[in-house]
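Worked example 3. Consider a protein that binds S-adenosylmethionine.
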Amino acid sequence: MSDEERRESWSRYWASGALHSCATSFAGNYDDDIGAFWREACADLDASSWVLDLATGNGPLPKLIADLCPDLPEIDAVDLAEVRPAWHAGLPAAHRERIRFHVGIAAERLPFAKGRFDLVTSQYGIEYSDLARSLPEARRVAGPQARFAFVLHHVSALPVRIGRAELEHLAFLQQDGGLLAAARQFLPRHAEGAGQGAPRAAFDAALKQVHERAQSAFAPDVLHETLVAVIKLAQAAPSLGPTTVESQLAALSQHLADDELRQSELVAHALTRVQVEAMAAVLAPDAAFELRELRVRGELFGWGLRIR
Ligand SMILES: C[S@@+](CC[C@H](N)C(=O)[O-])C[C@H]1O[C@@H](n2cnc3c(N)ncnc32)[C@H](O)[C@@H]1O
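Given these inputs, the predicted complex is written out as structure tokens:
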């Protein structure tokens, strides 16, 4: 997948206003091991510190640091995508100026001077980049005493298991003869007051199949959400007319394709212990590192890697 496709897909996601990419799992705050990991990693930051957050998204980590540190460090937050951190505009001016978002910036090519940062962070981010290039870049911009703290996708963690299940659901929804295809055949005709007969029967059958799959599936949210969206569109179709129905179906297809791209990236970039240890060896061959499994409400959520 090209950087451009990834950038556009993530930009559409961040434009929706989500604070982070696991919005439903975190419920907007940091508890359990992930919160503890970041509180420890940020404990000794003060106004003289410089922090770099890689692949920041809508900036949940800069926001957490702003919430934790009254003595706010300087923070540069970069992402390949166009991000929309709405919370940033609500900060007092003195804090706002200390947190700078840099959009369209790849972790593989950072626009910062050598040795500038005291702490380099990333939450479910750096593993999406080409590590052969981004890790040496992270090391270049880190100062001689700098620390690194990363929360990383773990091959066996819940978000990754959910990602794998969602990919199967998305393939089911988008397959030939699946719900999306049946809706494209039936709903524009229905909007014109026609479309009974075979298209209607195929649409009803596809709805039933998705409904049945959702009853027993692991991670069925995408099935339920798509059912709700399609049923609402079917109900509104006669008043909307065929052109609006077609454009809403195109938007729904784009939404599912974006979801598929993000989930397949997540699954593809989840890391084993050996891979994370290899990252630590590149970042700081001679320094001690600490690697732990992070849990949230009893569920494995990722790796926590700290290098001092
Ligand atoms: C799973 S999101 C994580 C965002 C955020 N750190 C969080 O905790 O919610 C992954 C982010 O990585 C960004 N990304 C992917 N490849 C990148 C690259 N090569 N350089 C910089 N950012 C990248 C995406 O645009 C996306 O915003």
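Take a moment to read the result before moving on. Residues 6, 10, 20-21, 55-57, 60, 79-81, 106-108, 123-125, 128-129 surround S-adenosylmethionine (CB under 6 Å). The beta strands are 50-54, 74-79, 99-103, 117-123, 142-152, 289-296, 299-307.
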